[in-house]
Amino acid sequence: MVFLLLQSIAAGAAHEKDAPARNVPSATAIDHAQIINTVTSFVQQQTAAMPGKAIYQIDEIDRRIILPKCAGLEAFLPSGSQLIGKTSVGVRCAPASRKEEANTPQARANGWSIFVPVQIRFNIDLLTSARQLPPGHTLQEQDLASQATEISRTEGFTDPLQVVGKVLRYGIAAGQVLREDMLRQPYSVKQGQVVPLAVQGNGFSIRSEGVALNNAGEGQAVQIRVGAGRVISGVARAGGVVEIAP
Predict the structure, then answer these.
(1) What phi and psi, each to the nearest 5 degrees, are found at residue 51?
(2) What's the whole-number mean pLDDT along residues 99-104?
(3) Is 213 helix (H, G, I), strand (E, B) or coil?
(4) Cα 207–Cα 211–Cα 213 angle in degrees, nearest 5
(5) How far apart, in whole angstroms, are the C-alpha atoms of residue 11 and residue 65?
(6) Any alpha helices (H) in 63-222, and if so which ranges?
(7) pLDDT digit string (tens) for 105-123?
(8) Which residues have C-beta within 8 Å of that of residue 102, sequence separation ≥ 6?
(9) Radius of gyration (Cα) for the chain, nearest Å?
(10) Cβ-count burial 98-120 (b if 16+ within 10 Å, e if not)
(11) pLDDT per residue over 197-228, tens digit each?
């Protein structure tokens, strides 16, 4: 269930796009509650599929901001914004559906937008280490526990499938929340290993061998030394095979 907390009025918290809208007569001005309701519905819909329970706080709009009434309010997320932490949701008066309607003076006057500040946090169960684990350890399900945490930025894992089979870059203590920077994919190819090389082209395939010059997980680039000391590049694949582009 999602909870909504409304903060007391914050001057300057919302910014309007069209300054002339301040002179709109109050009888034709939109009720700020309609804008807030539009933001509320948008946040509820966008966070419904996210893991955990969303708690969000929407700033009220400065009462000095007066905007024309609009029958077609449309919420949107500004470019580069995320629905977590301190962010904002835009609301605009959607343009008329027919071109001739959009060209009327009333339609042009109603082409406003406003940005409403929102703070979003999530109560979520994040994966932690069940015990102290050494560097280079490959995570198994028995290494994992979970901890209820409130977050205001994207971090951590919620599903064991996201981490099982990955390798710790460094040792961690028991109860530590697992993060992306702690983990790496297991190496498919290791430095100094003699690896099979596969070259696949249109109607032909070539098999050979070489020595890996660096560690690489599946899908990562690897340098290979072949005959006469020549170095070529390839991509590590499952089973220690290195794929070479023809």
Answers:
(1) -70, 150
(2) 45
(3) coil
(4) 130
(5) 10
(6) 99-102, 105-109
(7) 554 455 799 999 999 998 8
(8) 95, 96, 108
(9) 28
(10) eeeeeeeeebeebbbbbbbbbbb
(11) 998 878 788 889 999 999 999 999 999 999 88
